[in-house]
Amino acid sequence: MITVLVVGIGSGSPTQLTGEAIAALNRVDVFLVADKRSDTRDLAVMRTDLCRAVITRPDYRVIEIADPARDRDATGYREAVADWHARRARAYAEVIAHELPHGGTVGFLVWGDPAFYDSTLRIVEQIRSAGMDLIVEVLPGISSIQLLAARHQMILNGVGEPIHLTTGRRLVDEFDPALGTVVVMLDADLACAALLERFPELEIAWGAQLGLADETLVRGRLGEMLDEIRQRRAAARARRGWVMDVYALRSNRVGAPLS
Amino acid sequence: MITVLVVGIGSGSPTQLTGEAIAALNRVDVFLVADKRSDTRDLAVMRTDLCRAVITRPDYRVIEIADPARDRDATGYREAVADWHARRARAYAEVIAHELPHGGTVGFLVWGDPAFYDSTLRIVEQIRSAGMDLIVEVLPGISSIQLLAARHQMILNGVGEPIHLTTGRRLVDEFDPALGTVVVMLDADLACAALLERFPELEIAWGAQLGLADETLVRGRLGEMLDEIRQRRAAARARRGWVMDVYALRSNRVGAPLS
Question: Could you tell me if residue B255 is inside a domain?
Fold first, then answer.
């Protein structure tokens, strides 16, 4: 029997793991890691360092799995994606069967928390659909959303108000002050700039590389902070070859500003 | 100088604390606790057990602070609340000054994460406004939202879709399938029942006492699950004298159902 542990590792700093997550990591025989572009070597090193810092058993293995090529010429986009997902699931199932022929425990490390804008649980579901019996456990981790709020010493909701989490891609179409505090992830282009004309009163609380030594924070009126954020974002990326950032927007038309 | 540590303790289970949070708890000289109604004795015991389990220094103190009485007869509701906040802030400032006349570290324990629907950081801000200099640090904790998702092995967002966090009080006015997955907190009355007529397709993933030994989960079509949820909610409350629950709603009109 195969057990799959999907473990939220937060920012990757060992002190930000829960005891439960550390115990889970120590049960894993084989960690599966999707291979990524070369500019994330820094992330691979952080992952390796984290495992070394908290895993006491000497015999765990880390296996990289190449993502199958995606057929960009397929006539139907949906069919192409579905086919790619099926091939990826088979690739994982084959590696698991090869590495653990008599059963055992597979681990996936997830930056942040597996519940927010991460696809690992979809991959696990696809491996199941490919016919492999799996026992699954999910261990939550501290997400960048929580670190953003903690570092800015901020309650995300205004009194009795909602919190809305969305992506840079959707932000401009979706934004409405009535959504409460709007937290934006996966936004490489700072889509919020396009909101300024309609909502000049917006306040932003932004953070990048949260939980790491080079963590950086900006907070204030959106219109006054955009240049500073762009510069810090570029500098963070130049240092590590990657940048992960997240921000919260609030209109002072609803409830309290981000003070 | 006074340092204030606002520490997210998740469900209160020692294994769900981060190492960073445990280190913070060990720096605290005096924990301040708002006194609550007698039916939360069980929560007070959990808090005491947690401190005993993870704090190694023998000399920390736990001080209960009585909330000042609220003037229900005041002519203006806003003025009454503002006055009550100011009196509460003075009560905290007086206790801090009395307990730590030469400075030191004050701790607040927050169930879940201080960023989501918790007022501790507002109290800290009010103590500052009352004239006390404070250095503040916030330590995130695993929220019930994350445990809900982990236990249901669920990614909260549909592919590329938003997540909306709101309260039971706002849910019926606010609900729209376009909000994506809607996570509802602070809903003692299961306000979602009132959505069934308009949105019979809604799916729910519900959990109570998450992270505790008597944790309980329900998942399925909202219309088919409501009775079961009501029964389990009442049983959980009967056992402990309190119940904390949270749920996620998703319409299968947008993206994937909660499968």
Answer: no
Partners of residue B180 in chain A, C-beta under 8 Å: 166
Kindly report the pTM of this predicted structure. 0.94
Residue A90: inside a domain: yes
Cβ-Cβ contacts under 8 Å, A6 against chain B: 153
Can you give the CATH number for the domain in which B159 is found?
A: 3.30.950.10
CA atoms within 13 Å, Cβ hemisphere of A68: 17
CB contact under 8 A, B162 and A162: no
Same domain, B133 and B8: yes
* Residue carrying structure tokens 């004239």: B131
Structure tokens belonging to residue B11:
């469900």
**ipTM strictly over 0.90?**
yes
pLDDT number for residue B258: 64
Indicate the average pLDDT of chain B. 91
Give the structural domain span for B33. 2-139
**Ranges of residues in chain A whose predicted pLDDT is under 50:** 38
**Is residue A149 included in any domain, yes or no?**
yes
B209: DSSP letter: S
Pick from A106, A41, A30, A35: nearest CA to A67: A35
Cβ distance of B140 and A139 shorter than 8 Å: no
Kindly state whether residues A87 and A117 are assigned to the same domain: yes
A18 vs B15: CB contact, 8 Å cut-off? yes
